[in-house]
Amino acid sequence: MNVHLLKPQFALRELFDEVVELAPDAREAKIASLDLPPAVGVRLRAMVVFDDLVELTPDQRHARLEALNLSEAVRARLEAMLVADTRAPALLKASAAEAIGHLRDDADEVLGQSLVGTCIGNFRLLELIGHGGSSVVFRAERAAGDGSQTVALKLLRTGLYSADAQRRFRREQSILAQLTHPNIASLIEGGVSSAGIPYIAMEIVDGLPITEAASARGLDVDQRLAWFHTLCRTIEAAHNALIVHRDLKPSNLMVTREAI
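Below the sequence we write its predicted structure tokens.
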């Protein structure tokens, strides 16, 4: 099945990346020069201020807000983002080590109570399917026509709006967008939720890690080598696009249930 993406007229992520690296006194002039629809301008201004405030303590945030000359609409949206940030699950706000600790200690309870069943953008989180040091991946769905679309939704920790984090986030989306191969999961959408949580939605692969899939099928050495050959050709395609995965391991190599 081919997935066709419609790009929004104004890509907030790109606009944010362009504006946030400017000096504070130049940001408003830049936003004004973009001639954005009012609602988009409000969201962009709130995102930029949120980036400045998210790492501050509540008292520091309050003092900084009082010093800013924000419109009522921007202030309302910003305050909603800040409230959402204070309520964000510890798993998403913690350091990598703390996040891994949560996952090891009591992942089901933490995620079941705080994330599963909630919405990120237009996606509703259904279940945890994977995790890493700075992100978690969920099976998620959204309405699509008369039915629904299921995706693998990767959520990054909040507070990732530093210049370096922005570049890494943009780079990851760019890499995924370049990879068009039948054996590589495709990018569906990337963005930032209204609560300030960056996310990437990808094609979901319903299957097992390659080692488990091979054992489940009782593959002999020749059959396993045939799979390995397919894997090498897939990696070669990524290398030809000047992309190196850097984290190849069985849990990242999924075999669909229909594969022979």
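The mean pLDDT is 76.
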